Structures are given as structure tokens and as C-alpha cells.
Amino acid sequence: MNQINDSESNHNRGIVPKAESVDCPYPEFSDFDKQKDENCFSVDQIWACYDSLDVMPILYGHIRKVFSPDFKLQVTFLKADPEEQNKINWVKAGLPMVCGKFIHDDTIETSKRLMFSHQMHIKKGSDDGTYLIYPRKGETWALFKDWNIGWSSDPSNHRTFKYVMVEILSDFKQETGVEICYLAKVKGFVSVFRRVAKDGIVTFPIPSSEMLRFAYNVPSTKLTGAEREGVPAGAFELDPASLPTDPNKLCQPEDREADT
């Protein structure tokens, strides 16, 4: 187990503590930062961490120790461990892989809570020391816009990404993948998104062979519609810290609203 300090981590792994690097608007109805108070961290949790690629939560960290009374964490990062050749090529090209099988990588010690985005729900793999991470029903995720598996053959031209937000409508199954629905930003709100139909279709399948289309998991709160006038029932408030600060990188599906 290689151990490095968090300043080395910033160089080697690209971790950027959000509070020190990027300003973002406050959410209107949810307190996402409260979910990463010091007392929220426990041994064996897996957390999504911000990376300097787009300062989005595309890295995963396994909490190994929690120190007190002076708060500090020992964290082992996870790295993708793909088996299919196209996914191996993707990872070798330096492109982010956030779904699939992961194993332990470098370990750091840090007191910087805000380098963490949110806790992930994972399953342990059949082999010791392996972890499986896939979208779950009810979660919100970002997809790479115009994704193509061929990016790995020309990665230098695919370092700047655009994203589209989706809701996960079914748990992942190896045989069928997942069902998703596109989300579009509701005008007049900081980060409220609602379902939309795309090309007249509400739900779309993403097969297990295309899980590389997923860019990262986005923390969110499902809204009732009673929060304020104009809030659609069943819409989501997404964590603004997990949305691109450049509005040109957040793409909107332009079609009719879907029933929630």
C-alpha cells in the first residue's frame, strides 16, 4: 500500500478540494455540505471525490481510518480494474471510468473534508479487495454528451467534456444495463431539474456494454413541489458543486416535459 500526503495527492491524482478551487452557487432547498460534516465519515465508507479534470466527483476514496480529536482521514483511492478490452483501452487512454469493478490504489491522509462530494453505495466484488459501483434506481447521474467508445483511440481530442443529466429508473443488471430518463434544468432555479422526453421518448436503455457513457454520480434531493411556487413535483435539486461551472458544458435535452 503506497502512502502519500495530500499535497502529493494534488499533483499525482489531481484531487482538488472544492472550497479552495471553485466557487459555485448555493442550492435553494437542500444542504448538501451538511452530508459531509466530520461526524458523517466512518471507516469502510466509499466516497466520491473531486478531480481536477473538470472538478467533478469522478474519483472514489475508501475511508480506512478516522482520526480524532483533530479530524483527519486515511483514505485509499480506488482505481478501475476493467476486464473487457475496450474498457482496458479506455482506462489506458486516461479517460475516466466511474462504473464497474474497482480495486485499491494509493493511500493518503487528509483533513480536507471538502475534497469529498458524497458517500457512494457499493457492492463488494466476488474477489477480495474488489468493489462494484453501478447506478441505482432513484439516483441522478451525468452522462458524457455524444459519447463514443472510439474516444480511447484519440484521447488527446477528448479531454474537454460536455454533460447531460439523467435520472436512473432501474437498478443495474448485467443482462440489461439500466433505464434512464433525461433531465432538464427548470428556469428560474439554481439547480432544479425535471424529467423531459427526448425525441418524444421518455425512457431510454443503456446496456451494460455502454456503462462508460456515465461520467459521474450527482448528489440530489427529490422535491415535492411544495418547496416554492413553480417547483415541479418529482423534480430534483442537484448539488451545484457537481454541475459544470461553464454553462456551455451542461447540455439541455430540448423537448417536451415528461410526466413525473
From TrEMBL:
Chain positions covered by the region annotation Disordered: 235-260
InterPro entries: DUF3444 (IPR024593)
Domain DUF3444: 20-227
Highest taxon in the source lineage: Eukaryota
Protein's recorded name: DUF3444 domain-containing protein
